Amino acid sequence: MPPAACDTSAAGIRTVLFDLDGTLLDTAPDLAAALNALLLENRREGLPFEAIRPVVSHGGIALIELGFGLEPADPAFDRLRRRLLEIYRENLARRTRPFPGMSELLERIEARGLNWGVVTNKPAWLTEPLLAELGLMDRAVCVVSGDTLTNRKPHPEPMLHACALAGSKPAQCVYIGDARRDIEAGRNAGMQTVIALFGYFQEQDDPDEWNANAMIREPLDLLAWLDGR
Questions:
Q1: pLDDT, tens only, 37-52
Q2: Quick check: pTM over 0.70?
Q3: What are the structural domain ranges in the chain?
Q4: Which listed residue (21, 30, 178, 182) is catalytic?
Q5: Are 162 and 144 a contacting pair, CB within 8 Å?
């Protein structure tokens, strides 16, 4: 299937950078299970997977807001968020897998002599064990987590740090993500950006407004974009 949109050539790209949740990996099943386990611990009914999936890219804060209807200023909020992450850490890769086509995409990126990495707002104590369990940690040229640096996406700092680790200039990098902050972070760093339409989107999201260079419906569509078609 061809890319949904493409307005610029990908000539000169040597590093492909991925967001983690909702882009590189389908983490929603394990995060949804963790939230529902926490709800049951607190004598609340679990939520349907379809209600949880769209908010997964926005992390633990968004999941607690969804499940408990609390604001971050609520006295119970931090305790619930920490417990959510504890449950999740114990079940990191039970059902999490690369999105269909993603494993082949990584192989073909590597076969072209390009490198690839991860830039995520997920903390390192979750990011690195997850990638390791799936056999991806040692293959990535860089892994920049939400607590690696002072700033997180949409600030360009983690993107520029990933460039330096990959040995590429920002103009030689493309960042693929499924949230507005992903595209803003890549653009703020001077990278080209691609929206993963197979990721996690909320009803109010309008990717057409994010000013990315391209949108892809499935991972392997990125190859056509890299070829400039």
A1: 999 999 999 999 999 9
A2: yes
A3: 5-26+97-226, 28-89
A4: 21
A5: yes
